[in-house]
């Protein structure tokens, strides 16, 4: 996914590469490759670990902010009470969702208050980019067409800011084309016919491009495939 390279480009020289290496999340060579988005699965795993750590720090700071400003402190008390008295897993999920939704505005206010600091602004932007990447992956795994388009719509500005101008242009054109698809095709897309499932199960699909790169293209690039074929005069003559 090219967007992983965009994340790495914007976060380079932040110390993330050294952090991934020193924390033994990735080997030094792999950590360097992760800044350009490769290898795919290791890169995604590394960003997930960093996102979890940053989200925890962000939440702790937000909680302190709410307590000091008396904003949303009652919501924290309600959440703690729900967890303490929980007996039904599904019931607690519904109740927590209601209370957590009420924190949307306070969190936005908190983010705006710290967005004036360069370091905070950098890591908030990193969190946002990783969440966009995860939305795109989730859409592929589940075949969720609307979520796929939502994630793609948020990518062009980041593509353009990192010099991936062609990606920014063609993603915009892609979105425009998808708005004009025939109704019959749109119904198929909404049913999840946008991904490829290579094994039995649920929520394990991948994008067609990913499936192609990890199957036919991968085999063609190995020994005996098309790699170096044009350098063989006899093969070209055939």
Q: Can you tell me about this structure?
A:
- This protein is an all-alpha fold.
- It folds into two domains: 2-71 and 129-202, no CATH class; 207-238, no CATH class.
- The protein is 71% helix and 0% strand.
- It has helices at 2-11, 16-22, 28-34, 40-69, 73-84, 89-101, 104-114, 118-142, 145-153, 156-161, 165-178, 183-190, 208-213, 216-221, 233-237.
- Helix 4 packs across helix 8.
- It is globular, with a radius of gyration of 22 Å.
- The mean pLDDT is 80.
Low-confidence stretches: none
Distance between the amino and carboxyl termini = 35 Å
Give the overall form.
globular
Mean pLDDT across every amino acid position: 80
Q: Helices and strands, in N-to-C order?
A: HHHHHHHHHHHHHHH
Work out the strand percent. Answer: under 5%
Report the C-alpha radius of gyration, rounded: 22 Å
> Count the strands?
0
Helix fraction by DSSP (H/I, runs of at least 4): over 70%
Tell me the structural class.
Answer: mainly alpha
Number of helices: 15
Question: How many strands, what sense, and barrel or not for the largest sheet?
Answer: none
Tally of separate domains: 2
How would you summarize what this structure contains?
With 238 residues, the chain is an all-alpha fold. It has helices at residues 2-11, 16-22, 28-34, 40-69, 73-84, 89-101, 104-114, 118-142, 145-153, 156-161, 165-178, 183-190, 208-213, 216-221, 233-237.
What's the helix and strand layout?
Layout: H1 2-11, H2 16-22, H3 28-34, H4 40-69, H5 73-84, H6 89-101, H7 104-114, H8 118-142, H9 145-153, H10 156-161, H11 165-178, H12 183-190, H13 208-213, H14 216-221, H15 233-237
Helix pairs in contact: 1-8, 2-3, 3-4, 4-8, 5-6, 8-9
